Task: structure prediction
Amino acid sequence: MADDWEFKELVQAWYDPLHRFAYSLTGRREDVVDLTQETFLKWARKRGTLRKRSKTKSWLFTVLYRQSLDQARRAIRFPNMEFNEEGVSRGEGSEPRRRLDSESAVQALASLDEPFRGPLALFYFRNHSYREISEILDVPMGTVMSRIRRGKDRLRVKLETSRESGNPVIPFSRKETGS
Result:
């Protein structure tokens, strides 16, 4: 019974952060719930094997990240074609525009190559430190720092190109804040 209570607390504490991280990795709402739930399913099956409870956060994010990689590989091998005959309807006003801007930014992030997408999402959306990202992705900290720097550059180019082509995006300042 205590295990059930502990599991419920874990889900309550980490469902939303994992859900947002999954969305930042995939950019597809359809995949986010599956990735998040699969992460908790793996936790339920393997929670007894984790030696340090303090590593729960990084374990959950690592599992979700690796599942997103597996999902991306499957999508390449078995593409899913979606058609929308009605097109996309977009509302007027500032709130719909803001939503379109954030969706454009997430789509630009999702279009980056995986080595850059994961570190950027973990650093900016999940506020992980370089060290935590290094543990989650199982790469050296210098690699994490390099991928974040190069990923920001690539994301800036995508967002500026999108803005120049008339697509609404969040303005991306060239002024850097110490990261």
Remarks:
- The CA atoms of residues 22 and 32 lie 5 Å apart.
